[in-house]
DNA sequence: TAACATAGAACAATCGTTTGTTCAACGCAA
DNA sequence: TTGCGTTGAACAAACGATTGTTCTATGTTA
């Protein structure tokens, strides 16, 4: 049981409020230098730290943020979290982490619990389009920032990449390599990244004059297993694609595993492109060609937008959109892997 | 601003305490069925949730745990965290996550901040031997569980694997493959895993009648970069080792990268064994032979030990030690990789 | 000397709950 | 009618901080 103001007040023979004022360096008050000295010594000796809970109750601010994601074991979200913590921790915030495994009910339940805990704000990376949970956040006036995925276009603060452009450059790359049948592992149509990257994919196909074939698009979700299932479906077609653009690196990994199991060589029999450039992408053999986005920066930018809302006290709809950059590795171009760990060009944010 | 007891009290024309008793189903008090009904309806209509901060102040319990680790982007710690959350979340706890990057000062600072926040307990996976922070936790009577690494033998609740045995089986495996010069990337001598796995390594060498050669042991730390540096040192010797046992999978990964860069083939020129069996291990080419430990279970068990301390109100020194299991893959035995993703036997915990 | 600033610190309300204690009203037996 | 046991709910004191207001000595000025 750490020391409290009241106990210190007894020891210093002053009122608790006086101690509080000294501890907080309250500018509004005049304190005799001698008593200030006495109290400061006492504070140091006892290593007094104000009780954060009591403080939170009085100040109505807890200095706690929460990050809500599908799954921290996915390297994308791990890097994202680091970005958030690196942005928020130096400013005195602690960060809670909640995994939803993609379940809307788990997401809802976590958000309610976080609200009851009075976290100062929430960074949400697991939202779907027209997400009831996001609307609830707005309705409760809980400061929040969506990351990577948005819910209702432009209604919330958001950090992400230009997904249409990303899908476009990824697919165009495959077109330029001469592929005529290009498959797409399309995430989900209930998720913004799924819809937009697919739009980019379709745009590139159209630009190139290739025929659009709905059979080449398979909903994969965002897990490795989902990617494996969807890829298996595409690669089992009589007229199977010679290239696949996967909505994320993890689904691409699932696709690679399946392709290999089917005896297909990468990239000779099937080329694969992912999205996000997670650290794993450059370590695979062959390396995974992918669309690089600055994941750590996503988190740091989200933390900034969130703290800004908390400190100004008003909701924001600001959007930070990073420019995606294609990184070519061995999964699309034989021999492209040397040197290992190719660095993409720096990414720039707009607005 | 969510509804408070006081507001509800006005609307229901009763005293706030009465609402609180209905909300908490207080058994100690008699309430007329009719008013209970009335209040319950009101609670439902307004979706009343008690303010967790106020509750925490009064009850002296916040239902928040913290996990302190070196770095969440290391897959080992990501899996560990999931274990903790999966264990704690169903019982109403939220979990804070703090990364230390191996800095004692960051660790200290995070722990102080968590204490000020009055988290109910801490799970610490970044401790060193004779860690002042751990002693501070004990001194402050903060419920805590050490994971993977311990500080002062037997002084704290602990979850981990039998590191000596793990180091032994890993090294013995290399001996049995006929290697005569076996190197070791030894983590740090300030960390329990470093000391103990090294002890296992030395034991296996001694058992086999091989000469002990201090030059074959290099301190690597626990990062990929550290592993790369240390491996480069070992592999640059005139009389370089033909096999390496690395203290963790990530250091092994660093070693593999360096070996490949030096033009050495794995496993033909140098065999590599890691420790932990992170998901990445089975995805590398060749697959990484490693010592499997149930990482997710580490987290879940730690959460259990911690909640037990919180609920009984007394510190525990209980230890949960899992049995490590060697998993042989292509990094030590050519052609061992098929089928992909070999499963280790189930691990059993002792005590 | 009376009136009045001013410095220095105490006072007290408040944040939203929880929970031991007290109290009012009623029914019933003597 | 008096007294007592019950029931149902109000009262009030925390938990530990913050902060606007009030109070009491001083010291200063007219």
Account of the 3D structure:
The structure is a homodimer of 351-residue chains. The first copy, chain A, is α/β, with parallel strands linked by helices and 351 residues long. Chain A has 3 domains: 5-50, 434 Repressor (Amino-terminal Domain); 61-160 and 295-322, Response regulator (Rossmann fold, 3-Layer(aba) Sandwich), CATH 3.40.50; 163-276, Rossmann fold. Chain A has helices at residues 5-12, 16-23, 33-46, 52-59, 75-88, 104-116, 132-139, 163-176, 192-207, 224-235, 249-261, 279-283, 295-312, and strands at 64-69, 94-99, 121-124, 144-147, 157-161, 182-185, 217-218, 243-246, 271-276, 289-292, 319-322, 325-327, 349-350. Chain A has 13 helices and 13 strands. Chains A and B meet through helix 4, helix 5, strand 2, helix 6 and helix 11 of A and helix 4, helix 5, strand 2, helix 6 and helix 11 of B. Chain A binds a DNA duplex (30 and 30 nucleotides) through helix 2 and helix 4.
Which terms summarize this structure?
homodimer, 351 residues, alpha/beta, 434 Repressor (Amino-terminal Domain), Rossmann fold, 3 domains, 7-stranded mixed sheet, 6-stranded mixed sheet, 13 strands, DNA-binding
As a whole number of angstroms, the C-alpha radius of gyration of chain A is 25 Å
Report the average pLDDT across residues of chain A: 94
CATH architectural arrangement of the largest domain in chain A:
3-Layer(aba) Sandwich
What is the terminal-to-terminal distance of chain A? 49 Å
Q: Largest interface, per-chain counts?
A: A-B, 48 and 48 residues
If you consult CATH, what is the topology of the largest domain in chain A? Rossmann fold
